Structure formats: C-alpha cells, structure tokens
C-alpha cells in the first residue's frame, strides 16, 4: 500500500526527509521558487547552473536526474519541466510524467511540492498526485506544502477515488547534532 505523508515546505523539513529522491516541477520562474529553490540552495546552485549552462532547459516534460552528492538526505533529484499553459489537465499530465521518471530512476520513495504553480487548486493537485502515485510502483510519497490543507484535500480525494492509499502526517527524528 502506498503511503502519502504531508509536511511543511521548509529547509528544516527538506533536511529531515528520509526518501530516495526529491521530485521537482521546474517552470519558467527565475530565480527558482518553492521546493526547486530550496533544493537549489542546498545544492549550492547546481540546478541554476544546469539551467544557465543550457544543459537542461526545463522544457515541457523534459527530465533531469542529478545526484545530491550528500548535500541532502535524498540521494537524487529528479526534475521535469512544465509547460507555459497550466491547468488541471496539464498538471495531471506532468505529475504523471514526474512519477514515471521517479519510478524509472528506481526511487521507491520521494518527496515533492504539492502545488507548484498557479491555475490549479490544492484539491485538484491532490487528486492528480493521488492518481499518479497509485499508478507507479513505490511505497511512499511526501507532499510538501500546508500540511493541514493537504491532509484535508487528500482525504477528500481519497474518498472520491475510493483509493487505498494511506494519508499520514510526516514524522522525522531531528538530525544528529554536529560537534
């Protein structure tokens, strides 16, 4: 059974995640915002350099796989580019593509931002994540955003879809102190 956990989108949460990969949706905003911006910060600008150097254009559906080189608990970062046109159907398509790429990268667990762009409500985003997560192998997804709103929207989407996915709050032990 797939487990979806909800957590606050913050650097502290990012540093406490125990997932195999971080999954990012990259739009045309520069500098990078939200989860991509936080990940880029922890990777000392590696995503920005990849974009500026033209190695990755973040075009619609274009995928990128990066190692975190130990700068984050997750071993890999998977990114998929967003189209300029953004609505519920487009969001569902790109979320499905991102889940597919994460699965092909061999990551059974990953974290991502629940609502990366305007034009899609939280409830619509949760429905899309629920469908996409159920369609690929894996055991755990952590959605980052407003945990209360996400839990409510996921519960509604779960009932609507009669899904057997478990929705739970994120819990992580605090990182060890460095001496």
Report on this structure:
- The chain has 179 residues and is α/β, with parallel strands linked by helices.
- The protein contains 6 helices and 7 strands, in the order E-H-E-H-H-E-E-H-E-H-E-H-E.
- The chain has a 7-stranded mixed β-sheet, sandwiched between helices.
- A hairpin with an 8-residue loop joins strand 3 (63-67) and strand 4 (76-81).
- Helix 4 packs parallel to helix 5 and helix 5 (122-135) packs across helix 6 (147-161).
The CATH superfamily is Leucine Aminopeptidase, subunit E, domain 1
Average pLDDT figure = 88
Structural class: alpha/beta
SSE ordering:
EHEHHEEHEHEHE
Number of helices: 6
Return the CATH architecture. Answer: 3-Layer(aba) Sandwich
Distance between the termini: 39 Å
CATH class: Alpha Beta
Please tell me how large the radius of gyration is: 15 Å
SSE blueprint and pairings:
Elements: E1 3-8, H1 11-16, E2 21-26, H2 34-42, H3 46-52, E3 63-67, E4 76-81, H4 88-104, E5 109-113, H5 122-135, E6 140-145, H6 147-161, E7 166-169
Parallel strand pairs: 1-6, 1-7, 2-4, 2-5, 5-6
Antiparallel strand pairs: 3-4
Helix pairs in contact: 4-5, 5-6
